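Q: Joint fold for the lines below.
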Amino acid sequence: MLDSPTTASGSGFHRLTTRLHLDMPLLIGSTAVALLGLVILYSATDQDMHHVWKQVIRLVVALVAMLLVAQVPPHWLRRIAPVAFTAGILLLVAVLVVGHTGKGAQRWLNLGLFRFQPGEMMKLAVPMMVAWYLHDKALPPGRLQVALCALMILIPTGLIARQPDLGTAVLVAAAGFFVLFFAGLRWRLILGMLALGAALVPVLWHFMHGYQRQRVLTFLNPENDPLGAGYHIIQSTIALGSGGLYGKGWLNGTQSHLDFLPEGSTDFILSVFGEEFGLFGILVLLALYLFLVVRGLYIATQAQTTFTRLLAGGLALTFFFFVFVNAGMVTGLLPVVGLPLPLISYGGTSMVTVMAGFGMLMSIHTHRKLLPT
Amino acid sequence: MARRLTLKDYLAESQLTIVRATWAVILIGLLTAVLIARLVYLQIVSYEHYATLSKENWVKLLPVPPTRGLIYDRNGVLLAENVPTYNLEITPEQVPNLKSTLARLRRLIPISDDDVDAFRQLMAQKPRFESIPLRFRLTPKEVARFAVNRWRFPGVDVTARLSRYYPLGPLAVHDIGYVGRIDVADLQRVNSSEYAGTSYIGKTGIEQYYEALLHGNVGVEQVEANAQGRTLRVLKRDAPQPGDDLYLTLDTRLQETAQKALGDYHGAVVALDPNNGDILAMVSTPVYNPNPFVDGIDAKAYRALRDNPGHPLFDRAIRGMYAPGSTIKPFMALAGLQYGTVTPTSTVYCPGYYQLPGSSRKYWGWKRTGHGTVDLKEAITESCDVYFYSLAHELGIDRMHAFLSRFGFGERTGVDVPGEKAGLLPSPQWKEAVRHQPWYPGETLINGIGQGYTLVTPLQLATAVAALATHGRRVVPHLLYATKDPSTGHLQIVPTRYRPTIVLANPAYWKDVITSMTDVVSSIHGTAHSIARGLSYTIAGKTGTAQLFGTGEGGYKDEAKIPFKLRDNALFIGFAPAYDPKIVVAVIVEHGGYGGVAAAPIARKVMDEYLVREKQ
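A: Joint structure:
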């Protein structure tokens, strides 16, 4: 694996990437996934170049964001963490009060030029905040510290879930939790939290919206309502299953092109991918994702401060979790929570967030200092 | 921040991160394994299952209805055809403002509220991209008017489709019948998958009886369809097999002659070829136009037909049951000869009435002054009732019933038109079973002259006459002459079906009766002598006048004083040429009065048309 602490040695290209604080494995891996995404998006949108160009523009914006974030030294990131977190909380409250309603949920803040989802920002701000809080504490954290971290995680999670945006809420909670995990959260506590979570299911059920409950029920038995709520899952598994080992070929997916598969270009784009490229194609895609995750974990192990180790580990695991939840929902392993497939699904905010996260990993990796061993 | 402490933390925490990263990799590996296992299950293990489901999703089978067979008469005159009709159809998806579009269309073309209601009902059931008919059968003028204004109506189109049409309208309507929209009851009778896509089914007549031949076999189109059911392209097409064309035994000109001859009278005419059972003409009047029934007759017009006192929808030729009156006498004469109760030369004295031995009750004949001494020939020629009272009495009801049964009285002829009635040939057993009463000897007399319980259909009567004309050879009357497979052009003639031949003790009896029947027309005393003028062939015939109104024992009153509805039915049976029969005719004129006056001339016209024209 390419591993280049800041030195002045190497070729011209190497010097350039070093100066731009780029991590080539992350850059190449994420760009490769995004390009595969454009290829399948072209098919999923029925060869609509208009959508593809819009996605290309988003990708460029996301790459610029990644590049910019990579320039920010980790200790700056640490310092702005509480600011970003507080701003995020305020924005979430603002969204609940004046937010723009889309698809029955208030997620958007209309900022004139573009609409902005504060929940998206919290995917990065929450792990930053938890890592900031823990960076000067003795690890593993004590109970009081864990409880405080839990508050930092649950307040934004609750606000996002209220919008309602279950998918993002789950992701934000996971991101915070993964930072705690890397802080050495004791297994007893982890298991205890899982048990508590299981015990809280009925409570959670009580607070769920009708459509969220429906999703869970549908997940448990899609055949109950094959033309209603179960339709997504049934058509998605048909698309994947009929793809077989090698798929029906690019642009030849009948499930997607004949409109049997809903949301084929957004949350269910993996079904289109699996239908057209088969198991083989999905394994290639999964390998690319895992490469990015493992690279992130590696960066965490190589990081030099508590903050960066926690943040890098948390971000890497969150990215995996992101992919897994989407793949799980598309394959019928998990309930439909409404999460896109990172870097591939059509839509902008999520791609910018993910790339910005990679920018942070790059920053962490490329701002290391040579230390005596 | 204490530097020493930080350094110490650094080492421990770095170690911690590596441990936790290792755990993370293990967890990731486990979850990934679960995911891959799921994908393998979906894409490898259950591949066949999901591939089938996927195909079922996008490949739809669409029925392609076959073209209905045409119907011709025996000379190739078209009786039922499929013509393109123009309908006004709307595709709701493409119409910007349906309400205003409908309002503007109605200013252009007459569209009834019923049409709009039917359209809205269909629209609620069908997807928005499907074209829905609003008005059927546009006139050429309406088509033209719409065509000029078409640009103002996006989503509205005139479409052509095949629709059944009967070019001769009311002619032979009871024989041909008509098709109509398939309803739920129809679908229960037929194989509904064969009728997917078909909009018409035979409702009456030949159209109903030979539905299976006329319909053909449905074709299938495999099409690619999207989730909304919209057809995108045709993948495969199995062409439908069109229905057979039917050639009927009817002769359109003869049919027309018979219908015209009946004029405004209600009644029936049946003309058969006695040698093969071909029905040359079969008329029931009044007639009606079948064409409005094809696309659904409107309720008002249907009520008018249904409530018409003449019952035009009723097929008198096969469903009308009439007392045969004196037309039964030739058959009774054969029965007397067969059982030896009379001989060709034996006589009966007719004082104008008959009395059963030991009874004072008088059974009057139609001629109150009596016929004097009559033999068989005179009895038939002059239609002497008393001779046949005597014959019937000596024969007895059981032998009478047995003998007349052999001519097919009291049973269906087996004609290929649905709904035929069997008539009624009474017997003591029948009376006991149905009326719970014993048979009275007087009833034998009454039935012996074709009154009383005895009822025949015009077709039944004609079929019995055919058996008489051919010396006992019994044919099954039929309307289907041949079928033609439109794809191969192969013509298949329908073979004649026969029933057991009637064998008499002495074949000369046939001639005795037939000769007597020729006298009915040719003799100056004959009851049908009025039709003998200018005859170039011999007719063997018999008139009948069936009483509908009991005039008591006093016999017949002045005809003109009886209300029309109670006047006698006039009948005539006959065949020609008498000794080489080519045509048998049976005529019933409701309330026509005397058979020789009202019915016989109709038969003459039909025979002339057939025999004289045939020679030319």
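Q: Anything notable?
A: Residues 63-245 of chain B form a domain with the Penicillin-binding protein 2a (Domain 2) fold (CATH 3.90.1310.10). Chain B is about 40% helix and 20% strand.
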